[in-house]
Each structure stands twice: as structure tokens, then as C-alpha cells.
Amino acid sequence: MLHSPLRRRLDIEIARLGTGNAQLKLMEQAWSVRSALAAALSDWESGRRRLILLDRLAAAQDRLVALEKQRVEAGEDGPGELLTSQQTRIQIEQQAAELREFVDAAQVAAAKALGLPPRALDGGEFGWRKGGY
Predict the structure, then answer these.
(1) DSSP code string of 85-132
(2) pTM
(3) Are 92 and 58 in contact (CB under 8 A)?
(4) How many whole angstroms separate alpha carbon 68 and alpha carbon 72?
(5) Which candidate, 90, 124, 93, 130, places its Cα nearest to that of 110?
(6) What is the 3-state secondary structure of 20-81?
(7) What is the spatial distance between Cα 86 and Cα 66, in angstroms, rounded to a whole number?
(8) Which tens digits make up the pLDDT trace of 38-60?
């Protein structure tokens, strides 16, 4: 069956519209995946950096607790001072535990965005280009 020129043009235009719509949907999906990946990688990296800082803070607080213990034993400070230092150390550890959960969740989200199992990113290092991702 032969189609009229008008019918062929309409069929071609309909096909172009369908193709354009599919391209837009693909671009939207790609942008969604890229945005999710960028957010997850950013959360993951910032969490890991904050963990490093918390580890340093914990080490400093450990030194402070040891010094305070010596001061209490020497009678220079009351036991309440040592207790305060120990409570601060416990709070730091609680913050670190919460942050580790956040980092683990961000790693899972990054792996999911990449279509990988979460442990596939263990030991991974990601660098950010200047001016964005």
C-alpha cells in the first residue's frame, strides 16, 4: 500500500517526536543518576574527612583524660574534672559512631548509583575537579 506524501511526512514527524521524547527521558534519567552519584560521593568524602578530624580529636581528648587523671591523682583537681573529660571523650566516640553510619550509608548510595555492590568501593578514592564534578 502506497502512502501519500502528506501521510509519509506525518509518520516521519511522529517518529521524530517519539525519538525526541525518548531522548529527553534518557537525559532526565542520566541527570538523575549523576545528581544522586554526586550527592552520595560528596557525602561519603565529607564524612570520611570528618572522621579523620574526629579521630584526631579523640586522640587529643585521650591525652587530656590521661593528664587530668594525673592531676586528680596528684590532688591538683577534683574527680569531677576527670569525669567531665571522660564524658567528653564518650561524646566524641558517639559522634564518630554516628558518622561511620552516615559514611556507610553514603557509600551504599554511591555504589547503588554506579550499579555496584557497596563493598566494591572499599578503599576507593575520589577526586573532585575544580569547578564541579
Answers:
(1) HHHHHHHHHHHHHHHHHHHHHHHHHHHHHHTS-GGGGTT----PPTT-
(2) 0.71
(3) yes
(4) 6
(5) 124
(6) HHHHHHHHHHHHHHHHHHHHHHHHHHHHHHHHHHHHHHHHHHHHHHHHHHHHHHCCCCCHHH
(7) 10
(8) 999 999 999 999 999 999 999 99
